Amino acid sequence: MSKILVIEDESAIRRVLVKILSEESDTYNVQEAEDGLKGIEAVKKEDFDLVLCDIKMPKMDGVEVLEAARKIKPEIPFIMISGHGDLDTAVNTMRLGAFDYISKPPDLNRLLTTVRNALDRKELEVENKILKKKVSKNYEMVGESDSIEVIKDMIEKVAPTDARVLITGSNGTGKELVAHWLHEKSPRYSAPFIEVNCAAIPSELIESELFGHVKGAFTSAVKDRAGKFEAANKGTIFLDEIGDMSLSAQAKVLRALQENKISRVGSDKDIKVDVRVLAATNKDLKKEIEDGKFREDLYHRLAVILIKVPALNERRDDIPILIDHFSKKIASEQGTSPKEFSKKAIQLLKGYDWTGNVRELRNVVERLIILGGKEVSEEDVKLFASK
Fold this sequence. Notes:
single chain, alpha/beta, Rossmann fold, Helicase, Ruva Protein, domain 3, 3 domains, five-stranded parallel sheet, 46% helix, globular, Fis family transcriptional regulator
């Protein structure tokens, strides 16, 4: 049932609005407030799906109510009710976040259509949030070891900020999961997350990939093309394996971080970008700096926050939890029931040398699920998980 609040100081108009909405649908629970102050009190106490609010009211006008409500519960859509002389103000309230406005006396069809549209958008936003939470589980780090708990705690503290983060660790440890989780838990979660594997892009193309190019900048540049930084505007860019980036590209990334603007290859025109930068590497960047392969000034720009993801061999107590997690995930992907692993099988797997880290463990679990018995046994591990 949709809860609607009508804030209107003119009792006749308020009664008409309540009557129209109540008769329109038995799924509308309509409440009323006779002035702005009482309206704000109602908003504080209850969760409304929609508010209809008059603009001209004593004690607290509609603009003040809208601004106050958006600080308390910004997700509530507002439809403003305007008199003939309030139209400019009504339009201004939309800049402040109102969904729409209707004029007095209210046209029945216009009123009901606007109410339905506002409620539909509210429902869509709720569904998107639920979906977002489901999606976020794909990027949650699995484990309860001290080292993983430290990372989880750091993510909770760092994610809501715009601080740059440098994520280090061996291949297969889950550096990209940390980056995704930082984005998912940040205010930028609804904006793009753009991932760039710096090691997979040839050095002569990395600048074009990151910053775009203009037509004619080089032989194959047949038209203007936006780069990854522009694609990530308002969101997050994740520079994976940044230790493999060329020095010339590093210089341009440094400028983007310093000035919040980039220029496409072949162009002198600056383009402003609002991007949070996360980076990851499996290299020792301080050693790379000593060898002249990585810029020290860029390192200090990127490493505002340092997160080191431990190797799986350093958190063996998480292996049973990871096996259970992967077993359920793989079963879900294949439309089958999760397989149990015997205690001896798990104990044997805990003793392996996991040079490929979590990624290798996931592959081994999948292999054992496919080739092992109804319950994965110690013998199955010896047969199919040989190192």
